[in-house]
Specification:
By secondary structure, this protein is of the alpha/beta class. Helices cover 42% and strands 11% of the residues. The chain has a single domain, classed as TIM Barrel (Alpha-Beta Barrel). Strands 4-5-6-7-8-9 form a 6-stranded parallel β-sheet. The chain has a 3-stranded parallel β-sheet with strand order 1-2-3. 50% of the residues are buried. It comes from Amycolatopsis rhabdoformis. InterPro entries: DUF6282 (IPR046249), Metal_Hydrolase (IPR032466). This is DUF6282 family protein.
Length: 296
């Protein structure tokens, strides 16, 4: 790892970590992921994501193991069928207990189900699960009442609204409503994976104040099969600029490399391609700190 990468990654904040427990096989628990991130990169914070449940409860249960880890660990909730879909009660509880991110439907979204019918090309759960498609719009194209209520709850708490794995036009509709409510902490994850949001549409998301989150686990040069070459990530960054981009790992799966390994490999590759060190730090430290309100 180059010294430039060491400097840029120190204090990083990973907004998208798939540590455990989870119905999907995971490499480690949240406190173990935090420890590895702190010991190797001085990771300032991470957000634990599950497609199936409110991760705040996990973090509170692991509190005794986190007391000697300086990394702050936050949770959130993904609005899939396992938590009742677009469930204002579940969202309110999660955020009132310290949750920082609300992901709109991921594995329960119509778009995800189309891309991964019956879970194909996705981790196999360790227990039987039932999955129901969750939509945010009515047959007439309006946002559902529950969706509007959830947006109001997110606005009141100042939490991050993430578009999940929904159709790009659904994400646009939700972001438009969020904009009208004055919400400014909006994120769309991996637009070129599952979601299929074209760069031109992402331009529109950025104009709404959204951050485009790219997952370094999908690039990770030198660490086995990757979905995309790192040059593709550089193109996305160049298009929207470091002020509007967040990098996150999307790692923690048992069969994938540790997040820290992918951070190091991808950071070095981006710097080798000419990305300024300050731009990398903007995307991994400053932008996530704004989203999680860590510098307020």
């Amino acid at each position: 790892m180059s010294q430039a990468a060491v400097r840029a990654l120190h204090g990083l904040i990973d907004m998208h970590t798939h540590s455990g427990p989870s119905p999907f096989p995971r490499r480690f628990l949240h406190h173990e992921a935090a420890r590895d991130g702190w010991d190797r990169l001085g990771m300032r914070a991470m957000v634990a994501k599950s497609h199936h449940h409110n991760t705040v409860m996990d973090i509170l249960a692991q509190a005794d193991r986190l007391t000697d880890v300086p990394t702050q660990v936050f949770g959130g909730i993904a609005l899939n069928s396992m938590v009742g879909g677009i469930n204002p009660h579940a969202v309110r509880m999660c955020l009132n207990m310290g949750g920082k991110v609300v992901w709109f439907p991921t594995i329960s979204s119509g778009r995800h189900i189309e891309c991964h019918p019956e879970g194909g090309d996705f981790p196999t759960a360790t227990i039987p699960l039932t999955l129901e498609r969750i939509d945010v719009v009515t047959p007439g194209g309006d946002l559902t009442a529950a969706t509007r209520e959830v947006l109001s709850i997110i606005r009141e708490s100042g939490a991050v609204l993430n578009g999940g794995h929904m159709y790009p036009e659904y994400i646009r509709r939700v972001f438009q409503e969020a904009n009208e409510l004055g919400m400014r902490r909006l994120v769309i994850s991996h637009p070129n994976f599952v979601i299929g949001a074209e760069p031109q549409l992402c331009d529109e998301y950025v104009r709404m104040g959204a951050f485009i989150e790219h997952e370094i686990g999908m690039y990770r040069p030198g660490l086995g099969d990757a979905l995309f070459p790192v040059e593709t990530l550089m193109e996305w960054i160049s298009r929207h600029g470091p002020d509007h981009v967040v990098l996150a790992s999307d790692l923690g799966q048992r069969n994938q490399p540790p997040p820290v390994d992918a951070w190091i490999a991808t950071a070095d590759a981006l710097l080798d391609l000419g990305l300024p060190e300050k731009d990398l730090q903007q995307m991994v430290v400053h932008n996530p700190a704004y989203l999680l309100q860590l510098d307020v």
